[in-house]
Design brief:
With about 400 residues, this protein is α/β, with parallel strands linked by helices. Helix content is about 40%, strand content about 15%. The protein has a 7-stranded mixed beta sheet, sandwiched between helices. It has a 3-stranded antiparallel beta sheet with strand order 9-12-11. Strands 1-10 form a two-stranded parallel ribbon. The longest helix has 18 residues.
Length: about 400
């Protein structure tokens, strides 16, 4: 017999992966140019030149046996020190290389952090909409997953809901900004208010409530006025889960890190537990070559102008034909209100036009769909008449 819980997870892919596989099947049947797949956050912009340059130089300069050999379980010390120095320079962060643990991407960062923190009876809060796999990660670590609503119309944190849900069993709050799937950014005022709230609860309960920040989209903002706060500067009890998949267009290379604020309660014990969780889960020694590439290219990005152009084109096109969504300041998604309450039915009807996107149900927000605009600009241009035809089926009011 196999583990029934693991069988259930493995025998049914996430809804995002299901649609991704459906898109490949349709592409084989009718040609890829005729399928408009907006389902998955797979970067369409090439990695910045510094990535290839770093790979070529590293391969040339470091002997093969050393380059491709094991690093320390938590990652190469020089690489961790480089990233820490960069964060100190960029954000004034109080952090050192000894506070970092290299991981195989953001999913590993989250699962390791959750396993490190979760004790029997612990609860983990998250604002909807949230990345669909959070529930799997939390429950897999033995925690209780509790979603909270966000403010209607803005998707900013609903502090009244947070106050109602908060209790001494809460171990951590997970935040994701810029957000997947909404593209909403939590600004300095929001983070400051959140930090003050959690400090108050720490004093009330006599133990910390950790903040786990999921930040694969930290650099993906498109307007100069939009600032993404470095959360450990605002709240001591923070664990940063970062990935280079989106900023450097390296999703297949699986490289990221966990950074534990040295000012966090029991910081050394938390870091040791992260090392233990990485060991138990088999995540020791993240890809050695890409630890070095990440250290060389930290803070750099792919060509964000492409995503900005895509956002503006798609947002403008969809709102012009009557669709409604919150304007996204970051990431590369539009979270669009379904014309009817059943978003799954809306997704199915869109398939008639070979338009593929994801229902908001799995993101904790029924009645919405996620549309990923990390595709070619030409695909968006060709898809807009199809979106217009889809909108006409629902008699949406056009914007004049």
């Amino acid at each position: 017999m196999v583990n029934k819980k693991m069988y259930a997870l493995g025998s049914r892919r996430s809804v995002i992966r299901e649609i991704f596989e459906y898109a490949k099947k349709r592409a084989a049947e009718i040609g890829g140019e005729n399928v408009f797949d907006f389902s998955i956050g797979n970067p369409s912009v090439p990695a910045p030149a510094c990535v290839d340059e770093a790979i070529e130089r590293i391969v040339r300069e470091i002997p093969s046996v050393r380059l491709h050999g094991y690093t320390s379980a938590q990652g190469d010390k020089d690489c961790r020190d480089k990233i820490a120095a960069n964060l100190r320079a960029r954000f004034g962060a109080d952090i050192s290389g000894d506070d970092f643990y290299f991981t195989c991407g953001a999913a590993a960062s989250l699962t390791i952090s959750l396993h490190a923190l979760a004790c029997p009876g612990d609860e983990f809060l998250v604002f909807a909409p949230y990345f669909a796999e959070y529930k799997v990660f939390v429950e897999g670590a033995g925690g209780k997953f509790t979603p909270l609503p966000s403010e209607d119309g803005t998707f900013q944190p609903d502090f009244a809901a947070l106050e109602r849900a908060m209790n001494p069993s809460v171990k951590a709050l997970i935040v994701n900004s810029p957000n997947n799937p909404s593209g909403v950014v939590y600004g300095e005022e929001t983070i400051g208010r959140l930090a003050a709230f959690l400090r108050g609860k720490k004093k009330e309960y006599g133990h910390p409530v950790y903040l786990i920040t999921d930040e694969p989209y930290r650099e993906l903002v498109y307007d100069k006025k939009t600032k993404v706060p470095f959360i450990p500067n605002y709240y001591d009890d923070t664990l940063v889960c970062y990935s280079y998949s989106k900023s450097l267009s390296l999703p297949g290379e699986r490289i990221g890190y966990i950074a534990v604020s040295p000012r966090a309660a029991d910081a050394k014990a938390v870091y040791a537990a992260i090392c233990g969780a990485g060991r138990m889960l088999g995540f020791v020694c993240a890809p050695a070559l890409f630890q070095r590439v990440a250290a060389e290219c930290d803070g750099k990005t792919a060509d964000l102008e492409v995503y900005r152009r895509n956002r503006d084109l798609l947002y403008g096109g969809l709102t012009a034909c009557g669709f409604s969504c919150v304007y996204p300041d970051g990431a590369f998604y539009l979270f669009v209100r379904s014309p009817k309450p059943d978003a799954n039915a809306f997704c199915e009807r869109a398939k008639k036009y070979e338009l593929l996107f994801v229902s908001g149900d799995d993101f904790g927000c029924p009645g919405y769909v996620r549309i990923a605009y990390c595709v070619s600009t030409e695909q968006i241009r060709r898809a807009l008449p199809l979106f217009k035809a889809l909108a006409a089926e629902y008699s949406l009011p056009k914007v004049k």
